[in-house]
């Protein structure tokens, strides 16, 4: 079972539009309403893969009730933490050429009692978990050290932790040695404080995160592929993608693919790449099912192309 923790979930509305014209009326050609948040997306992808998951998330107000209803309809077990504030609502505008514009609300403020209840709910639900995936930004009220506390408590009970966050929350959690961290290229560059121009730059940055405490680093490099660095070495994975429709949740789908494949080594990286590639070819934040995957389109190699210039360098 994979337990997911989403401290700042959302209700996500995605509109497909031909293009964006500022100041004009834009008519959508498609619309989706989904439960959102990085950990929620991981749970949705794990469920689509046919594995059991439990989603721990603070929920409040009408948006929170709808998030729980939508997850239940998808067959996802929810361990809700009641809060006084309302769950945030986000909007994504997906243009026909693949460009995505997102408007993310800040989310509610969690009280000290709500924060502790969230940690206690994770402890209670983790007894049957193979992995805990802690994902996303922290809502108002939670200090950057909150994820570090969660990792420490989980490790005390022998549960493996995958962490997908950024900034001070990521750096604070590294001291508690999460089993895998999953930054994208921008988050990886932010963690080491310098630009990334090549795959080799990304490998060096991932090694620095390992030196700071991460047991393994699974880095999403956008259109350039994905990178896995652990104590055994480094691997680089790519996949053929025919049409990009939306990258909403693609990184979360990759993390789910990595965890359902065991969360270790090149085979798990191949699963992560296959899931991420499938996700970007689906509309909105739809998560790929096994039939959407194309393992034959995936290449994983230990011969990492260190000198390859990134198509999307991070300055």
From TrEMBL:
Top-rank taxon, per record: Bacteria
Residue span, Carbohydrate kinase PfkB domain: 16-286
Enzyme Commission no: 2.7.1.56
Entry GO MF terms: 1-phosphofructokinase activity
Pfam family, one: PfkB
Keyword entries, A-Z: ATP-binding, Kinase, Nucleotide-binding, Transferase
InterPro entries in the record: 1-PFruKinase, PfkB_dom, Ribokinase-like, Tagatose/fructose_Pkinase
Recorded family membership: Belongs to the carbohydrate kinase PfkB family.
Name by which UniProt lists this protein: 1-phosphofructokinase
Gene giving rise to this polypeptide: pfkB
């Amino acid at each position: 079972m994979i337990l997911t923790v989403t401290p700042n979930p959302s209700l996500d509305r995605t509109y497909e539009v031909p293009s964006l014209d500022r100041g004009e009326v834009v008519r959508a050609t498609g619309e989706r309403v989904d439960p959102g948040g990085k950990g929620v997306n991981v749970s949705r992808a794990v469920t689509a893969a046919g594995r059991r998951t439990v989603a721990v998330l603070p929920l409040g107000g009408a948006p929170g009730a709808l998030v729980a209803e939508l997850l239940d309809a998808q067959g996802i077990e929810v361990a809700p933490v009641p809060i006084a504030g309302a769950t945030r609502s986000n909007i994504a505008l997906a243009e026909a050429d693949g460009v995505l514009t997102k408007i993310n609300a800040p989310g509610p403020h969690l009280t000290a009692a709500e924060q502790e209840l969230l940690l206690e709910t994770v402890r209670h639900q983790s007894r049957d978990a193979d992995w805990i995936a802690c994902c996303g930004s922290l809502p108002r009220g939670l200090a950057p050290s909150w994820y570090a506390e969660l990792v420490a408590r989980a490790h005390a009970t022998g549960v493996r932790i995958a962490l997908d966050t950024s900034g001070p929350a990521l750096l604070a959690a590294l001291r508690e040695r999460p089993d895998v961290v999953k930054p994208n290229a921008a988050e990886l560059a932010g963690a080491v404080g310098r630009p990334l121009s090549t795959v080799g730059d990304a490998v060096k940055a991932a090694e620095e995160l390992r030196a700071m405490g991460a047991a393994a680093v699974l880095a999403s490099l956008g259109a350039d592929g994905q990178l896995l660095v652990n104590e055994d070495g480094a691997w680089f994975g790519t996949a053929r993608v025919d049409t990009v429709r939306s990258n909403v949740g693609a990184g979360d789908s990759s993390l789910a693919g990595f965890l359902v494949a065991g969360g270790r080594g090149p085979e798990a990286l191949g699963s992560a790449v296959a899931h991420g590639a499938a996700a970007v070819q689906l509309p909105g934040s739809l998560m790929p099912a096994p039939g959407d995957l194309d393992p034959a389109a995936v290449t994983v190699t230990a011969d990492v192309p260190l000198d390859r210039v990134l198509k999307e360098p991070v300055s």
